[in-house]
Specification:
Length: 402
């Protein structure tokens, strides 16, 4: 694995023999200039740029000192095909909204990584014919945005499909080879034992292909976890899995290991507070781990009311906090001290008018809006009798209080 960081300027071009295309990573086209240090890409929290009430990254940068963001998620088109989209609906090729956000971040001295996959939706590894075509699709994203970093979020249901995982790992290897200095992280589900059977099969696939990313990260939440102690135990167990799979010693395994947490209330009702994040951060830094990130900045703000009625939200954490509290742990992992001054709080917006009440018997299609539990919700796709807010990954997008 290389840890070199290439500075790709306006004239940089990489010929992709395996992908059958040419990557033009251009500062003129993408706004990219030079890369940040690997530590910043390793510390980049996830941010959904088009969904879940996206926060202003410039405001987060000013308030916390954060420089890197993990933008999520690139998927195959909902209607089928092997071309990259944001969330299955917005083609990368014609995107201007995400490009504008990236330009804002870079203008302030920051940068982004892009995450592919995630929970739900159709992944390019499932839709594309082989690793070469999968890599070509992802290369479009790298070229469009002049990326120095990319994250493969391999989890349900894709990681249960061995052919899809073979495509994803093969694509990751092609991208790593043909984009010198590209920071590549691979993120998968966490269990008390480290990771489950499918996660272990993914590691074996990487071994068989001779692929070593900057790190393999687990997500120790939504699996019966209870605070930081259960998470650090899982990280210790995952370290043993990395050792046995790749033949690494303990220190080498930690140098290739990452943590991806969930701030506040998880999908299954677990709670992770600022104190839990500090404990895991201490573990990660003391063991020289390669990555510390979390899902997500869209959730890194307090709900109204603070406990949000005991539900998990995509737009707030459901724990008591100041805005961007959790982002500051990423800043510390990167080796930077967050600002000590407290920025002027953003005024709480006046709640909007509630949409018509949700009905369990009605059929809703993409774009339909309803109200439930004093929040407005928008349907992401066809749905009937699925309660808004029951799951962050369900068919309803939280549009805020009403």
């Amino acid at each position: 694995m290389t840890r070199l960081r290439a500075c790709l300027g306006a004239a940089a071009a990489v010929t992709l023999a395996a992908a059958g295309t040419t990557a033009l990573v251009s500062s003129n086209a993408s706004g990219a200039t030079s890369a940040l240090s690997n530590r910043w890409y390793a510390a980049a929290p996830y941010l959904m740029p088009l969904d879940n009430d996206p926060p202003d990254p410039a405001a987060i940068m000013d308030a916390t000192g954060l420089k890197a963001f993990q933008l999520a998620f690139v998927l195959a088109p909902n209607g089928g095909g092997c071309s990259p989209t944001w969330g299955g609906t917005a083609p990368v090729s014609s995107d201007t909204a995400v490009q504008s956000m990236i330009s804002t971040i870079r203008a302030k001295g920051g940068d982004v990584s892009v995450s592919i996959g995630g929970y739900g939706g159709t992944k390019l590894g499932q839709a594309c014919a082989d690793a070469t075509s999968t890599a070509a699709a992802y290369q479009q994203v790298i070229t469009k945005y002049g990326l120095h970093a990319i994250d493969f979020d391999l989890e349900e249901p894709e990681y249960e499909n061995s052919a899809a995982i073979k495509n994803e790992i093969g694509a990751a290897k092609v991208l790593q080879q043909n984009n010198p200095g590209l920071y590549v992280s691979v993120t998968t589900a966490g269990t008390a034992d480290g990771t489950g059977w499918f996660g272990k099969q993914m590691l074996l696939e990487a071994k068989s292909q001779g692929f070593t990313p900057n790190n393999f990260s687990i997500m120790p939440f939504d699996g019966g976890f209870n605070g930081a102690a259960s998470q650090t135990s899982a990280l210790t167990n995952f370290n043993s899995i990395l050792q046995s799979t790749f033949g690494w010693d303990q220190a080498t395994a930690y140098a290739h290991e990452g943590f991806s947490g969930m701030n506040g209330r998880s999908d299954t009702g677990e709670y992770f507070t600022q104190a839990d994040f500090q404990t895991v951060l201490d573990y990660a830094t003391s063991h020289n781990m390669d990555r510390f990130t979390f899902w997500s900045l869209n959730r890194d703000r307090q709900c109204s009311p603070p406990d949000n009625g005991g539900r998990t939200s995509g737009t707030c954490s459901s724990v008591t906090q100041n805005s961007w509290d959790f982002a500051k742990y990423s800043v510390r992992f990167a080796g930077v001290t967050p600002p000590t001054t407290t920025p002027t709080p953003t005024p709480t917006p006046t709640p909007t008018t509630c949409k018509p009440a949700w009905s369990s018997t009605a059929v809703y299609t993409q774009g339909n809006e309803v109200s439930y539990n004093q929040h407005n919700w928008k349907a992401k796709w066809w749905t009937q009798n699925e309660v808004p807010g029951a799951s962050e990954w369900g068919p309803w997008q939280d549009e805020g209080a009403c």
